[in-house]
Amino acid sequence: MRMQLLALLAGGPAHGYELKQDLEQLLGAAYPQPNVGQIYVTLGRLEKSGLIEGEEVAQSSRPNKKIYRLTAAGREALRAWFEETAEEPRIRDEFFMKLALAPRTGLADQITLINKQRREYLNTMRTLSKLATTENRDNRISHLLIEGAMLHLQADLDWLERCQEELEELEEQRR
User: What is the DSSP string of 40-91?
Assistant: First the structure.
């Protein structure tokens, strides 16, 4: 959340609730909605680290609000973030760890784990498909997010199929 908030503040000063609304508007309903409390905690940490500055603004009929702006250090951190590439493919996948360790424990069947995970991915794909049809058509960023998530899920489903084929082949070789 740190870098996303810095990126939004690069567009100009804002308070926490405005940043929450900006994220929601930009990313749409497919992206997990940020918690306003989490946003304010993150803003506090960014301020302590010198990446943003906050200024209290008096309001006549409401409590004061704090407007945040990016500092030079924040702009530099943001520039460095954009220069970094995204992480490599997930090697430390929790599901794969379950699949690999299940036979050693005797507490779970690998094919059952695959089938359960497959159902989860299919349910998520259905949810995303519905969301894609109801999401604001003009929000191209949100649609790209949904499309990317669905492509990842399809790849995960293909991989689950491959795992199942390999495990069934190994089982057959043992017999």
Answer: HHHHHHHHHTTSEEEEEE--SSS--EEEEEE-HHHHHHHHHHHHSPPPPS-S
Q: What's the average model confidence in pLDDT over 55-79? A: 92
Rounded to whole angstroms, the Cα distance separating 53 from 46 reads: 8
Burial (Cβ within 10 Å: 0-12, 13-18, ≥19) of residue 100: exposed
Instruction: Give tens-digit pLDDT for 16-28.
Output: 999 999 988 888 8
| Inter-residue contact 135 to 29 (CB < 8 Å) | yes
Angle, helices 2-9 vs 36-48, to 10°: value is 80
56 forms beta bridges with 66
Return d(Cα 45, Cα 42) in angstroms, integer: 5
Cα angle 119, 122, 127 (rounded to 5 degrees) comes to 125
Beta bridge mates, 66: 56
137 pLDDT higher than 90: no
- Cα separation of 25 and 123, whole Å? 25
